[in-house]
Amino acid sequence: MTFKYKALDQNGSSKDGIIEAINIDIAIDALQKRGLSIVSIKPEQEEGGFFQKNISFFNRVSNKDIVVLSRQMATLFEAQVSALRVFQLLAMQSENALLRGKLKEVVDDLQAGNSISASLGKHPDAFSPFYINMVKAGEESGKLDQTFMYLADYLDRTYEVSSKVKTALIYPAFVVFTFIAVMILMLVVVIPKISTILTESGQTVPIYTRIVLGISDFFVSYGILLLIALIVGSFFLWRYLQTTAGKIAFDDMKISTPIIKNLYSKLYLSRIADNMNTMLISGIPMVRGLDLTASVVDNLVYKDILDKTVEDVKGGSSVSNALEKHEQIPGIFVQMVKIGEETGQLGNILKTLANFYRREVTNSIDSIVSLIEPAMIVLLGLGVSFLLASVLVPIYSISAGM
Question: Which residue has the higher pLDDT, 39 or 266?
């Protein structure tokens, strides 16, 4: 491998250059033997083709990668391995090319004298503000091994709950899509062929059959225009959802729409309680903890609530009194926080709340799935049955009259 380096010689003059070595440790060794003080050193970027340059578009650092990385760091710090060596080892072992590159940059920053939190903070697409501040608290308290274990456990819990929510909503979405696709296919392909028979027979057809034939004619005649309108409408809807107003409207819809509102509300409350508990046990002050929780709660309605709570707490209000002003925060949540403040056991109370709402999310998912599955199957059956009855009953009448 070749490495680019910046260094200072014994006279303090700057030296830039390239050195070949098996790994970065040997490269550092060789430069130090030349009497150079290394400022920075990193692998030289190799030129690649179009595919190589754009492969990162398809690559990403997943939650699972960060969980595994955090557990590995916790183990290595517990074994008293130096921070520089920890990240050198992890950079060599990481299977994710994008994460491996980021860890190598972290190694370079550590060699330049930066802290771990500052080095990780240069990669916000992989490490959230919550993650960085937890690491910073671990550096200040000297408990990095515990901090990384807390982070791994927290990310595991978050991933588990979020995955359950997504999985619960994927199945109904798939069934609805299948239902719509089957209905359109029948209206565009099957019904027009059968409508010819009904028209040529000259017999009067029932009103429900005429409705189905009219809808079929509409899809056959204007289907392309309808598809274009749907694509254009979807594009503008997507553009709107990228705006602040669109994001607020969508986030508000998630916590106000019947059936799913309880699921999402409990998900966000669980996330708030879990975030706060994790930061409190790591020694992060309450105001800073609320501020960071607002940045990672992933819902602008709850973010606004937490931002206002931060301002109220800074103004001398208790957390429970500040939260009590907002109807989206249940009374039980407020009362439990108030008890935690009065007894000095807020961390344990928040842990209890996080576990409670996590169980509630799981129960809500199970309830929704148990209701949606039969409802979707019945709806699909009724829709197809209605279409078939609309054309088969007249055909049967024609056959009987012959």
Answer: 266
The residue among 155, 181, 211 that closes a domain is 155
How many helices (H) does the chain have, and how many strands (E)?
17, 3
- 314-342 burial, b at 16+ Cβ within 10 Å, e below that, comes to eeeeebbbbbbeeebbeeebbebbbebbe
Strand (E) or helix (H) holding 7: strand 2-8
For the domain that residue 7 is a member of, what is the CATH number? 3.10.20
How many structural domains are present in the chain? 3
Per residue in 168-189, pLDDT tens? 777 777 878 888 888 888 888 8
On whether residue 284 sits in a domain, the answer given is: yes
What are the residues whose beta carbons fall under 8 Å from the beta carbon of 402, sequence distance 6 or more?
A: none
* Most confident option among 25-29, 182-186, 312-316: 312-316
Structural contact between residues 71 and 149, judged by C-beta atoms closer than 8 angstroms: yes
What is the predicted pLDDT for the residue at 156?
81
| Residue-number span of the structural domain to which 14 is assigned | 2-46
265 and 334 assigned to the same domain? yes
Let me know if residue 305 belongs to a domain.
Answer: yes
| C-alpha torsion sign, points 139, 143, 149, 151 | negative
